[in-house]
Amino acid sequence: MKNLKIIYILFTVFIMLSCSDDFVDVEAPFENSEEFFNSEQDYQDALVAAYDYLQSTSKFVQFAEIASDNTLCGGESATDSPYIQEIDDMIHSPVGQSGGGLRTMWQWMYEAVNRCNYIMEFKDKTDFPNKASVIAQTRFLRAYYNFILVKWWGDVPMKEDQRIKFGDEFSIERTPVAEVYDLIERDLIYAADNLPYVQNQTGRVTKGAAQALLGKVYLYSDFYNNQDKFTEAADVFEDLITNGPHRLLTTAEYPDLFERYNENNIESVFEIQYSDIEGGGFGCFQCLEGNYAAFFNGPRGFVDSTGFFDAGYSFNVPVQEVVDAFEDGDIRLEYSILDIEQWIADNPGSSYDENAGYEQTGYFNRKIMARKGDLNNPDAALTNPDNYRAIRYADVLLMAAEANNKKQSPDDDKAKEYLNQVRRRAFGDPLNVPGPHDITSSGPNLYEAILKERRVELVGEGHRFFDLVRTGRAADEIDGFQEPKHNFFPIPAEEILLSGNRWENNFGY
User: Fold this and answer.
1) Distance between CA atoms of 153 and 173, rounded to whole angstroms?
2) 3-class state of residue 169 by DSSP
3) Is the dihedral of CA 80, 83, 88, 90 positive or negative?
4) DSSP string spanning 15-82?
5) Comparing C-alpha atoms, which of 336, 452, 465 is closest to residue 62?
6) CA dihedral over 176, 177, 180, 182, signed as positive or negative
7) Cβ of 74: how many Cβ atoms within 10 Å?
8) What single-letter DSSP state applies at residue 155?
9) Tag placement on the chain: N or C end, fewer CB within 10 Å?
10) Please, is 480 exposed, middle or buried when counting C-beta atoms within 10 Å of its C-beta (0-12, 13-18, 19+)?
């Protein structure tokens, strides 16, 4: 069966979603949308359309990393992509460059949720044997998109099992965070109960992906939803760890973890599929099939004599502080962050113009950075086919460690074991044997060690900003971060206007 990555390309999306001034304006290419969903193929086609918006989330990953203390915006100059610069500097607002940039991201996620809700609105119209799986995948995707919305914007307009249609913006209210989380959790529980651990088509969501995301949502619930669900998180992670098919790649395998030839490997719990087909241009990022972030992260003017790396636009540059967070002997540093000067010194004939970018530190995000060898390449900035490992098993182990340490009846022995498996891989120690790099502390000191490990294990993957926010540490670590203002991003001014000015913006904006 075809990889879902290929089907993204071949399928002509039948739901036409407007980019007009309506915050969600959905029109189907047939007179009555109720005429659809008459066969399993109709549902499968609609499901692929819902998957398609996963590819637009690369912007959220990159901008969340830039918002954190891991990286600077970079780019060509101080005026290159000013709304990203404003996010980096914590001066983003509902209007102007940052408001306009955030608005497109807001629209994309609502279009994505609407594609899921189109299926859910007609979920009872036609029966077929594989229906539970289709609905389970749909509900996972809706949960994934809603989780992005609620993390970024807090209380957000929401309908359950109905599309938001033209005119609804004048009556729909912002849904409280607690209700959004309730729907996300119910969607993921259903998905976990109705999906297999292994799908017959690469790229489709699995039981493990649903469990991992559900556990993550439970962790976030403590801060965003005022509910202590660490015990529930520990339980769902334990089921995945015990019964799921995933494992850590070994120390010897780790250097290949993020390479194109090792996509959808055993450590990847949920992976977003990209292709080298240009589905749109710079004016339509949501149309792209490629991972635009990869080329944007690479160094400007880079000539690699090894033929391994490609050049890029020098955004999202790691800072010295995150480089220094790695301990001596940690193999992850070399394969997470590219030290451009060291690379040039080690590979004669390579070159780099250190003056060709803004805020350059000499470091680049190696995990998400363009490699040579795109097969179909009309524009390398838009057609990078490298997948994004949205949830890795190492992340699952670290989240499980956190949940076991923080739950009402802590199990620090289990927390240490999960944490230390990740550390042992990083230092070349046997995974299941206590080693010299093990963390032995308990209680709050163990919690600090877990959070520190999350930073170095997941650097460059877009998790750090929300880890800092949800643990209440963002104001201490991110320059310019104001608590509670920057816990959420501003709702774009145009969306407030479209609501008839009924919505109040988030605090401080």
Assistant:
1) 14
2) helix
3) positive
4) SEE--SSSSS-EE-SSS-GGG---SHHHHHHHHHHHHHGGGGGHHHHHHHHHHSSSEEEESSSTTSSH
5) 465
6) negative
7) 29
8) S
9) N
10) exposed
- The SS3 of residue 316 is strand
Tokens, residue 66: 């830039």
pLDDT in tens, 2-60: 466 555 443 433 333 333 333 333 344 444 677 899 999 999 999 999 999 999 999 99
CB atoms closer than 10 angstroms to residue 316: 29
d(CA 328, CA 427): 9
Which has the closest alpha carbon to 217: 274, 281, 140, 276? 140
pLDDT tens, position by position, 306-329: 999 999 999 999 999 999 999 999
Written as one letter, the residue type at 10 is L
Alpha helices in 56-201 (DSSP H): 58-67, 82-88, 96-121, 131-153, 177-194
Which backbone phi and psi does 317 adopt, to 5 degrees?
-90, 125
DSSP code, position 452 = H
Q: Which two tokens stand for residue 296?
A: 């944007």
Q: How many CA atoms lie within 13 A of 178 on its CB side?
A: 4
Q: For the purposes of burial, counting CB atoms within 10 Å of the CB of 278, is it exposed (0-12), middle (13-18) or buried (19 or more)?
A: middle
Quote the CA–CA distance of 275 and 286 in Å, as a whole number. Answer: 14
Spatial neighbors of 479 by CB under 8 A, at least 6 apart, are 69, 89, 90
8 Å CB contact between 218 and 233: yes
CB neighbourhood size of 21 (10 A)? 11
Both structure tokens of 492 = 């774009």
Which domains occur in the chain, in start order? 10-194+479-509 (1.25.40.890), 285-367+380-386 (no CATH)
The length of the chain in residues reads: 509
Indicate yes or no: pTM above 0.90: yes
- β-strand 156-157 against 337-339: which pairing, if any? unpaired
Q: Determine the Cα–Cα distance for residues 195 and 210; give it in Å rounded to an integer.
A: 8
Rg (CA), the chain: 22
Residues 398/471, Cβ–Cβ less than 8 Å: no
Q: What is the dihedral of CA 494, 13, 139, 488, to 10 degrees?
A: -20
C-alpha to C-alpha distance for 175 and 165, rounded to whole angstroms: 16
Residue 155 is encoded by which pair of tokens? 């209380």
